[in-house]
Amino acid sequence: MLVLAAAGSKTVTQDHPLFATARQTFERVSDGIRSVRPTARATHHHQHLIAALAAMGVALRRAQEDLHLSAMARARVDSVLVPLQSAYQQLRWAGHALPGFEIVDVSQACCAPRDGATPH
């Protein structure tokens, strides 16, 4: 949605169904993660998840403030993109902090785009 908004799409607004779904999913996941009481071994991992939630919350709030604008200025896109990048970094660190929680490389998925030389 951010790419569409940056490209000047008039269909990307605060009322867009995907934006509502993103907000609802974020709230549900956020409640779940915040309610967990991690073990001593998982505390470091959980701290990164909490930091990722905080950054994603900032990104969603900024998007809600700016997505009603058509042809978003680059600075407005960056105001949403920067906390998203921070959240992604926190998720990467969380993946390193506890075995079994690595970020999945979707480029290796069966549905990922491939060049002609690479078999599925």
Question: How much of the sequence is in beta strands?
Answer: under 5%
* Largest sheet descriptor: none
**Oligomeric state of the chains present here:** single chain
N-end to C-end Cα span: 29 Å
| Class derived from helix and strand content | mainly alpha
Helix count from the secondary structure assignment: 4
Q: How many individual β-strands?
A: 0
Q: Helices and strands, in N-to-C order?
A: HHHH
Helix content: 55-70%
> What would the average pLDDT be, to the nearest integer?
82
Q: What is the domain tally?
A: 1
**Shape by Cα distribution:** globular
Radius of gyration computed on alpha carbons:
17 Å
Runs with pLDDT <50, length 5+?
none
What's this model, at a glance?
The protein is mostly helical and 120 residues long.
Write structural notes for this entry.
The chain has one domain. Helix 2 (17-35) runs antiparallel to helix 3 (43-66) and helix 3 packs antiparallel against helix 4 (74-97). 60% of the residues lie in helices and 0% in strands. It has four helices and no strands. The longest helix has 24 residues, at 43-66.
Output the keywords:
about 120 residues, mainly alpha, 4 helices, globular
Helix-strand layout with pairing:
Layout: H1 2-6, H2 17-35, H3 43-66, H4 74-97
Helix pairs in contact: 2-3, 3-4
